[in-house]
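Retry 2 of 3 after timeout on previous attempt. Resubmitting structure tokens to design endpoint.
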């Protein structure tokens, strides 16, 4: 599966890094062995310098080979560089692919699952709601009021002078279809759940602190500072509505 493939890629990358590090270590050892002898040559006569230590065990076979011409030597150097570049490039490709898999798996864990997406939207059958009734549903853990308004309630909501309202909104701004009012059943004062068809304006009433809302869900009296919140919704047909 994915885990086996990732392990294989990591092993390949580790092998590449070990190869490069061993080459660098061999080169550093050679330089450390040669450095003292070079210092001795500057401090004593050339004739007094003893023979250089044998470092042939640290060299590759290609480095020990003698070349008959400069062209052969240059061709060998190019081949060695090409091999090194190929190792580095392959390690980079493997690392990038592993990183891509890790990032994709992380994003998959962050995306919404099917049950969460199902909770994000709510389908409401409008035919089941009689005129004059207010049904209480649950959407994303919040109470949702869907009200089938009567002609009298619609007229009362539209006849209000907006200048007298605390949170100034017309009824047309709050509904998509005149007969359907969709609001969250949470009082904007302290988050209580208001009672339907109650209060001085026949809309909603919060008995906790006495906030009165009209048939458009607008605050008309009491401590609540805002109208009842309207969730995102749309009508998919004459008899179906989707909230969310």
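Retry 2 succeeded. Sequence:
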């Amino acid at each position: 599966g994915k885990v086996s493939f990732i392990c294989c890629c990591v092993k390949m990358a580790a092998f590449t890094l070990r190869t490069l590090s061993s080459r660098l270590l061999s080169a550093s050892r050679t330089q450390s062995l040669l450095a003292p002898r070079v210092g001795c040559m500057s401090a004593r006569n050339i004739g007094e310098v003893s023979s250089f230590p044998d470092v042939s065990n640290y060299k590759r076979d290609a480095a020990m080979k003698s070349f008959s011409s400069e062209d052969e030597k240059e061709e060998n150097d190019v081949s060695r560089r090409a091999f090194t570049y190929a190792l580095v490039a392959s390690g980079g490709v493997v690392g990038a692919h592993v990183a891509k898999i890790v990032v994709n798996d992380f994003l998959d864990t962050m995306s919404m699952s099917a049950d969460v997406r199902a909770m994000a939207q709510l389908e409401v059958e409008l035919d089941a709601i009689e005129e004059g009734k207010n049904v209480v549903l649950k959407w994303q853990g919040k109470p949702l009021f869907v009200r089938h308004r009567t002609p009298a309630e619609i007229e009362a909501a539209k006849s209000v002078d907006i200048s007298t309202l605390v949170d100034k909104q017309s009824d047309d701004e709050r509904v998509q279809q005149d007969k359907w009012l969709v609001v969250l059943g949470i009082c904007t004062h302290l988050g209580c759940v208001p009672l339907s068809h109650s209060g001085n304006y026949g809309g909603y009433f919060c008995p906790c602190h006495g906030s009165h809302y009209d048939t458009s869900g607008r605050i008309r009296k009491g401590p609540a500072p805002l109208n009842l919140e309207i969730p995102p919704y749309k009508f998919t047909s004459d008899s179906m509505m989707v909230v969310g």
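Attempt log closed. The radius of gyration is 40 Å.
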